[in-house]
Amino acid sequence: MHENHHLIQHFYSAFTNGDAEAMADCYHDEVVFHDPVFGELRGEEVGNMWRALLGRSKDLQIVFSDVSAGEHHGSARWMAVYTFSATGRRVVNRVAASFEFRDGKIIRHTDEFSFYNWAVQAFGWKGILLGWTGIMKTRVRADARKLLSSVRNDG
Asked: Please, what are the domains in the chain?
């Protein structure tokens, strides 16, 4: 098994245990992260995202599988089950993650999932009606950025 395989396993084990600091330590200082909710984050913003999400989560459950990694690239699948705090609705989000590595750390992390499916679960009928629109994505992203800036200001 390549050392990057162990790095991904360590990352998701930390996630499962709610350890945002250990997750952030897996990232290169110049990391670039992307997902449908936060968009693109860089450097310290990425660790702050996990700090914010884990810090406000009351019932998050993480399950990961299909970890694969070589010298330059890796991937994993993971599922998050939680209550979305803004609406109190239960969400089951299935994510495909891809990674690139540099200097023994994650330099690029991309999480892919259906924003529409997530929005339907998180917002109910509003997600059904608006989850496919740029309006909803823009609003959700603005709220996510606000959460991120609160961690930046507190941390």
From this structure: 3-154 (3.10.450.50)
- How far apart CA 7 and CA 11 sit, in angstroms, is 6
Digitized pLDDT (tens) for each residue of the chain, 155 residues in all? 899 999 999 999 999 999 999 999 999 999 999 999 999 999 999 999 999 999 888 899 999 999 999 999 999 999 999 999 889 999 999 999 999 999 999 999 999 999 999 999 999 999 999 888 888 898 898 888 888 887 754 44
For the whole model, what pTM was predicted?
Answer: 0.91
Query: Is-contact 84 124, C-beta < 8 A?
Result: no
